[in-house]
């Protein structure tokens, strides 16, 4: 009798679970939106939880499977999430109807550093964006050029020393030394001394940011299944202490002195002296307090995003130059011709005239997307134009940038490295707006886009003018991406042979 009762209870529990599962995972089918079959509890992110795929790999696989669909319904755990694939609908999300999709809905930790330009929403984001934009004007970028050029000079000397000693060096790590030095100089007015074999506190912190602890990895994976849970935890007190102490030390060093650097920290010091930053609204004023923690939060974003993404782009570009020597020769020829016209100087105006190098960088950003998936959240009920799909307030949206970049509909033969796709005029005439999203698009486009381009082009132009790269015994024609990496990375690194010209 007891066994019968236990079996009956088990059947009832299984039936309840099945009905719950069926109800939860019928959300998109009830709306007529196609999508992959989810698994219980994990939804469509099972392979991510098992660390067999990164989020980018998972979304690209789904993108390819439902190539004909404009919208695809997926589940983060039990939470319905909409994959917006059609460039015109992507344009609606990122640009036309930005007021509905101005929030990332990004689940950040409880740390005060989470209130930063990347993850903040609403008026906090608007105020920060407005106040930080002056750091990246054309005038400011021109003023930074001599500082970047000094970093380039040290970078070239370091590489030359490696070549003289016939030392193999992984390209991603090499590019990271350069971009970290640039960020340290341009954002904080510091010489980070990255061009050595010894790791300092800045290099160590960079590694910790992009190689999170097991505890943080587990927390991030759980957050995929139960979105929002990460907000209940402080992910890293060490990171918070590092950046708060950093900004305090810089402020102390500059105290009582004219703000002559005109860099990120000078701007933040000026804002802090005002006490609060505000923005006028129709029904009043929105304001945020500028204290050391607020400054540290922005410093974290500038520090991490500013060097790692550019280092990734540089390393993938150098990899492609080693595999495509004819393209490298054309790049070298253009660099020499432009530099001759600028009295041997690689400056702001010089890189603006290196059109083919910019095409190469764009093609690198397409084939090896660094910004892979953009997140948004609806702030009101919304019907996608030309469809019968209506979503309620609070719906999570994913924009599959790398999926669009690999779609043969927009980029024929997408696995081929072909800079001609971005020849002047083609980006406007043959590539739909929002099919190419290396930095996002619309009001929340990456604020540091122009700075990232300048530091990448300056460093790459100087490097390729002085050095030639070819395949080495470690060079892989097809890179295998690391599913566990925070930023897109080759699993076994990127290796090429470097020689002097």
UniProtKB/TrEMBL annotation:
Cellular compartment(s) = Endoplasmic reticulum membrane; Microsome membrane
Q: Which sites bind heme?
A: 446
Q: Which reaction does it catalyse?
A: an organic molecule + reduced [NADPH--hemoprotein reductase] + O2 = an alcohol + oxidized [NADPH--hemoprotein reductase] + H2O + H(+)
- Can you name the source organism? Diatraea saccharalis
Q: Which GO terms describe its cellular component?
A: endoplasmic reticulum membrane
Q: Which GO terms describe its molecular function?
A: heme binding; iron ion binding; oxidoreductase activity, acting on paired donors, with incorporation or reduction of molecular oxygen, reduced flavin or flavoprotein as one donor, and incorporation of one atom of oxygen
Q: Which UniProt keywords apply?
A: Endoplasmic reticulum, Heme, Iron, Membrane, Metal-binding, Microsome, Monooxygenase, Oxidoreductase
The record's family statement is: Belongs to the cytochrome P450 family.
Enzyme Commission number, as recorded: 1.14.14.1
Q: Name one Pfam family in it.
A: p450
Named cofactor requirement(s): heme
Membrane topology note: Peripheral membrane protein
Q: Can you name this protein? A: unspecific monooxygenase
């Amino acid at each position: 009798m007891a066994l019968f009762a236990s079996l009956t209870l088990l059947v009832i529990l299984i039936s309840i679970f099945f009905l719950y599962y069926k109800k939860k995972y019928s959300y998109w089918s009830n709306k007529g939106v196609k999508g992959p079959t989810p698994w219980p509890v994990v939804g469509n992110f099972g392979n991510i939880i098992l660390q067999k795929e990164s989020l980018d790999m998972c979304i690209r696989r789904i993108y390819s499977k439902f190539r004909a669909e404009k919208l695809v319904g997926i589940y983060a755990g039990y939470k319905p999430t909409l994959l917006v694939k059609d460039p015109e609908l992507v344009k609606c999300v990122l640009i036309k109807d930005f007021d509905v999709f101005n929030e990332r809905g990004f689940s950040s930790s409880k740390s005060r550093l989470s209130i930063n330009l990347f993850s903040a929403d609403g008026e906090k984001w608007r105020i920060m964006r407005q106040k930080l934009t002056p750091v990246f004007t054309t005038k400011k970028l021109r003023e930074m050029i001599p500082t970047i050029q000094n970093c380039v000079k040290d970078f070239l000397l370091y590489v030359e020393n490696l070549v003289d000693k016939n030392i193999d060096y992984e390209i991603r790590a090499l590019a990271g030394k350069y971009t970290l030095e640039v960020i340290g100089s341009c954002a904080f007015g510091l010489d980070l001394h990255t061009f050595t074999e010894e790791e300092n506190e800045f290099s160590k912190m960079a590694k910790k940011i992009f190689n999170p602890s097991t505890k943080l990895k587990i927390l991030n994976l759980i957050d995929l299944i139960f979105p929002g849970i990460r907000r209940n935890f402080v992910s890293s007190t060490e990171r918070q202490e590092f950046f708060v102490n950093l900004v305090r030390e810089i402020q102390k060093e500059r105290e009582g002195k004219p703000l002559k650097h005109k860099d990120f920290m000078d701007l933040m010091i000026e804002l802090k002296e005002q006490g609060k930053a505000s923005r006028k609204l129709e029904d009043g004023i929105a304001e945020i307090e500028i204290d050391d923690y607020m400054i540290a939060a922005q410093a974290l974003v500038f520090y991490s995003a500013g060097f790692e993404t550019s280092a990734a782009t540089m390393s993938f570009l150098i990899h492609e130059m080693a595999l495509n020597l004819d393209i490298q020769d054309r790049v070298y020829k253009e660099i020499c011709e432009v530099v001759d016209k600028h009295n041997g100087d690689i400056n702001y105006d010089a890189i603006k005239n290196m059109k083919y190098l910019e095409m190469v960088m764009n093609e690198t950003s397409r084939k090896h997307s660094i910004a892979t998936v953009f997140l948004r959240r609806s702030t009101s009920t919304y019907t996608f134009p030309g469809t019968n799909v209506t979503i309620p307030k609070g719906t999570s949206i994913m924009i599959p940038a790398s999926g669009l970049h690999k779609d043969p509909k927009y980029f024929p033969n997408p696995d081929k490295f072909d800079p001609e796709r971005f020849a002047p005029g083609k980006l406007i005439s043959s590539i739909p707006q929002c099919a190419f999203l290396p930095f996002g698009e619309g009001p929340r486009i990456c604020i540091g886009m122009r700075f990232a381009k300048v530091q990448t082009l300056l460093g790459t132009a100087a490097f390729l003018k002085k050095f030639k790269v070819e395949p080495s015994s470690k060079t892989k024609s097809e890179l295998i991406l690391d599913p566990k990496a925070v930023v897109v990375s080759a699993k076994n690194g990127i290796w090429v042979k470097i020689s002097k010209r």
